[in-house]
Amino acid sequence: MSISAQQDVREWLKVSYHGPGFPLEKDLYSADLRPDQKRSVLDSIVRREQRRSGSRFKVIKRNKGLGILRQRIREQGANELWAGALSDAQDWERYNLLNCGKHGVEQQNKEGEKRLIVHHSNRRKNCPCCAERYQEGKALEMIKRMEPVMQSNGISERRFVPTLPDFIRDQIKQEDDTRWKREINEMFQEYYGCSMSTRNRRYESGSVGINIQTHWYSSGEPYLLKPHWHVRTYPLKIDGDNKENVDRFITKQDLKELKYEWTRRVKKVAQELNYKGVDRIPDKLNIWHSFLDFENGNKEKSLAQFRFRMRYDMRSPGEDLEKAVKLLVCDENGEIEKVVLACKREGWTYYLIWTFKEYYDELLTRLRLKGINTSYGWLRRFKNNASLLGVDVIEEKDPFQPIEDLNKPVVFKRRYEAKWNHEIKRFQIVKHMKVRDTKDPDNDGFWQEVDPWTIHGEQVWMGARKKYLYKPLDRGG
Questions:
Q1: Fewer beta carbons within 10 Å, N or C terminal of the chain?
Q2: Would you list the DSSP string of 370-420?
Q3: What is the enclosing helix (H) or strand (E) of 207?
Q4: Given a cut of 60, is residue 281 above it in pLDDT?
Q5: 213, 373 in Cβ contact below 8 A?
Q6: Residue 15: predicted pLDDT
């Protein structure tokens, strides 16, 4: 890219920036820098800030500071939620938030088997850890539900991402989301031959399964409001007691017609919601399409991709903001003063410096988003249609029956490590957990490392909902 083109990109970034803090004037870099070059860039940013403020800073990298940042967020939330004289219930809630994930129990059953349970605050609107666990639980539930459907019926999942012009995105409010989702569902239902009544919006000729996840912010620039939708369609048409596989190869012409139909609907909804600039909407808006072929490809590889994409689409709204954090800048007492974040746009990386309060406020804005995941068609009435879908739904029972007298109180601690992933050629943050027995306060046990996925309630939380097991129906006999 020429120098003049680089200058144009810098000006573009400055003009389009609307978040807290500021992009530093000379900090625009190619996104494909080597890790050592990126570290050098971050070091120069920190030194410049140190000279500017005249203070002595302690700099903590993300893999060392993630636990510190999450704890500081919980402390800030506890201070804002519960101040002054507290009732016993409020004091207990405050304690749970401050100690989220610290305490737990080791249980043992009559067979001598043991398991660890961790206690979390489950305040997903205030705790980034609990929000992540909640979304992971929703994704896992959808994965367990849809894999047997696809296996029993030989269908693939088709994934669409309809796009919008930036000047329309800027006007979308949270209360508009239901209207947009309703239009998206209707468009894809009709695409698969499932007409809907204009009078009462009922399905007139059956329905296919559709799941829509709203992403309110850009993943590369997580401060930037950029609402869009990830649409997952399962093209199995159910009409009463009849079902039909309506999946078909989508040609370029099919996709072109779908784009024109989406554009028509965007103009209609934008006009209904009194958005400005409806006449500026282009004649054809883009729709990104992809699918996984479970029947003709490597089945295990396809299932792994399906699980990965489901978790990506249904991730916590605050996850992108947390992943953008590269450095914490702390004062001499260890208090977080500033948070350095990395953002990407079209092959270019730039860094932002926010105060801790700015970061905290932005994170809570995302965690408090409502109704980001919605299902339609037979997917909304899954249990009623399970038999027709070829799926056996069984309420999950806890096979582990602990003996309460053998429960031991334990405490946990976490360590985060940056490990290089050779397949995707970038660093990933890996969590390590240790546990120790605290039954005897005068003789604490030794720290023992454990796999986070083996600890009940650590990685996944489904709230108070009933849990179900899903498996293909046995058609034999």
A1: C
A2: ---EEEEGGGTTHHHHHHHHTEEEEE------B-GGG-EEEEEEEEEEEEE
A3: strand 207-217
A4: yes
A5: yes
A6: 34
